[in-house]
Write a structure and sequence with these properties.
This protein has 2 domains: 2-96, no CATH class; 100-172. It is 82% helix and 0% strand. It contains 8 helices and no strands. Helix 3 (36-45) runs antiparallel to helix 4 and helix 4 runs antiparallel to helix 5 (65-78).
């Protein structure tokens, strides 16, 4: 959708009418996906382009088309410049995409921390075995070891679930 906004704005500045600019830009960018035929038919034959774009925005990854529809509607109703509106929409969509990518990269560090925390008990067991302490024998063959194993396992699972929930909450926001 970002590419489509830039392409339509460029075609409008080159002197094409909005319907023609949308036709050319949609064919060159292939940004409309499955809704391309309906949008192109509306643009070519004088249909309600904003309504078709709004319907197309319901598809996966096409929510920016609702903004294109709004810009189109404002330009048709009030005579405002469609190219300027599409430029602003393109900048807003780019900023939103960059923000999502930045959040994803920041949260990847949290996911790797969670993975590391999940492996710490295994590392502790390996260190105990390397020192000759036989940690598995102590954990599995003594009552105190079994209690520690169960409590430690429950705390480990609770901690991992809690940390994962926090990170997922950041992803959803």
């Amino acid at each position: 959708v970002i590419t489509l906004c830039g392409a339509v704005a460029g075609e409008l500045r080159a002197g094409l009418q909005p319907g023609q600019a949308l036709l050319f830009a949609a064919r060159s960018t292939r940004a409309l996906g499955g809704a391309e035929a309906a949008v192109l038919a509306a643009a070519r034959f004088g249909g309600d382009v904003p309504e078709v774009l709004r319907e197309a925005s319901r598809g996966p990854g096409a929510d920016g088309l609702a903004g294109v529809a709004a810009c189109w509607r404002v330009a048709v109703d009030s005579g405002a410049g469609l190219a300027a509106g599409l430029d602003r929409l393109e900048a807003a969509l780019r900023a939103d995409r960059d923000q999502r990518q930045d959040l994803h990269s920041q949260l990847s560090g949290a996911w790797s921390t969670i993975s590391l925390l999940a492996l710490l008990p295994v590392a502790g067991l390996a260190m105990g075995w390397a020192l000759g302490a036989a940690p598995l024998r102590v954990l599995l063959h003594s009552p105190a070891g079994l209690v520690c194993l169960v409590i430690g396992g429950l705390l480990e699972v609770a901690g991992l679930c809690w940390a994962a929930r926090i990170v997922r909450g950041g992803e959803e926001a």
